[in-house]
């Protein structure tokens, strides 16, 4: 009989992502029956009473609170999920580190690279492993692509294209929230979406070494509703307008460190048409591949330059690709976004139990944040900017 170590879970902020974290923890026992630990949803905190009640009534937490400090002080809480807005990440992460609680935090981990570095330093000083929500690297098709590139099947990598296009802010009547304020969000689409693209490119090719970028704010003001808003909601045209302080669109040319490879990365939150059209293409001297979140379980692959028929073959994700076999028995059966969050949850708790960093860490978040910082600087002055590397020990 498998004796599992119980791990008490604390949650800070019961929004969409907090609910996904909770579902992911609960799904571990189904996807990873061999796990040597068993998550237990102990306590959730949210400043809104209705959300705190939801954590108990729907998500299954044993209790809830309006004060995040009670989560960190609870002796039954072993680990913490931090799913609050960006401007609270540093405060909550440093408090979790001071309490000795390993934490799984969403990106961007800090509003800028400096805040993210503070979080990295606090976790390191406390000797904590961490988890960061770089969700798309967990897709089995991406893991298949990573293996093909590492094995040299594409030859020398020459260029990369990353596109992260979404329309969640395309409506000019979309409510003005903290996401559009630099003091509370930091960057706009650079941190929100393109950090995922940066992570994908880094995972598949190499760290980004140099950047030149441009940004654009398409919708320059938005209505501020009178009441509390959750997520991306529509306001009234009669509501007072507030300025949008960060970018709706960003693009960058990059050079990869230690490689001749170059790349083009772009992201938009106001693209009319794409809903969540996130894609990466990698080209080499002997082949190429492309992946899109819209067809998450498929990888388009072209290998070699000879033959009468030359083009892409669709490879379906299957057993042997990442953690696919934990969810489906054979190729062709789709996985979804929530499954990727379950993989994140498992990797985070596996890191805690083993003391070895398995999950993406706050060090990975710092690497992405430094690329974002270089892109912001380049957008301001039009020059190329070098990206400060993150030591492997971090």
UniProtKB/TrEMBL annotation:
Residues 9-134 form the Gfo/Idh/MocA-like oxidoreductase N-terminal domain. The keyword Nucleus does not apply. Gene3D superfamilies: Dihydrodipicolinate Reductase, domain 2 (3.30.360.10), NAD(P)-binding Rossmann-like Domain (3.40.50.720). Keywords: NAD, Oxidoreductase. Residues 142-290 form the GFO/IDH/MocA-like oxidoreductase domain. Signal peptide: none annotated. It comes from the Bacteria. This is Oxidoreductase. It comes from Frondihabitans sucicola. The lineage of its organism: Bacteria, Bacillati, Actinomycetota, Actinomycetes, Micrococcales.
């Amino acid at each position: 009989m498998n004796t599992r170590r119980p791990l008490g879970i604390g949650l800070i902020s019961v929004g969409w992502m907090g609910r996904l974290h909770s579902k992911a923890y609960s799904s571990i026992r189904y996807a990873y029956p061999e796990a040597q630990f068993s998550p237990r949803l102990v306590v959730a905190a949210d400043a809104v009473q209705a959300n705190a009640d939801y954590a108990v009534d729907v998500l299954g937490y044993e209790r809830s609170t309006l004060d995040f400090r009670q989560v960190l002080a609870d002796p039954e809480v072993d680990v913490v999920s931090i799913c609050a807005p960006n401007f609270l990440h540093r405060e909550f992460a440093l408090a979790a580190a001071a309490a000795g609680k390993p934490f799984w935090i969403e990106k961007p981990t800090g509003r800028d690279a400096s805040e993210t570095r503070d979080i990295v330093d606090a976790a390191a000083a406390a000797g904590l492993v961490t988890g960061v929500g770089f969700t798309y690297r967990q897709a089995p098709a991406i893991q298949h692509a990573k293996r093909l590139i590492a094995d040299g099947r594409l030859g020398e990598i020459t260029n990369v294209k990353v596109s992260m296009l979404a329309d969640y802010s395309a409506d000019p009547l979309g409510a003005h929230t903290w996401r559009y304020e630099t003091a509370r969000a930091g960057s706009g689409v650079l941190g929100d979406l393109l950090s995922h693209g940066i992570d994908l490119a880094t995972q598949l090719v190499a760290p980004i070494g140099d950047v030149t970028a441009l940004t654009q704010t398409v919708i320059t003001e938005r209505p501020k509703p009178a009441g509390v808003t959750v997520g991306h909601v529509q306001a009234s045209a009669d509501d007072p307008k507030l300025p949008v302080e960060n970018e709706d669109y960003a693009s960058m040319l990059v050079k990869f460190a230690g490689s001749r490879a170059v790349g083009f990365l772009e992201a938009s939150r106001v693209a009319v048409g794409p809903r969540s059209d996130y894609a990466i293409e990698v080209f080499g001297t002997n082949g190429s591949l492309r992946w899109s979140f819209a067809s998450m379980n498929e990888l388009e692959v072209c290998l070699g330059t000879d033959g009468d028929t030359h083009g892409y073959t669709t490879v379906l994700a299957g057993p042997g690709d990442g953690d696919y076999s934990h969810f489906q028995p054979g190729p062709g059966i789709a996985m979804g976004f929530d499954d990727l969050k379950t993989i994140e949850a498992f990797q985070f708790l596996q890191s805690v139990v083993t003391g070895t960093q398995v999950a993406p860490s706050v060090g990975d978040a710092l690497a992405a944040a430094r690329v974002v910082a270089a892109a912001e600087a380049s957008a301001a002055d039009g020059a190329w900017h070098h990206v400060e590397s993150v030591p492997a020990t971090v």
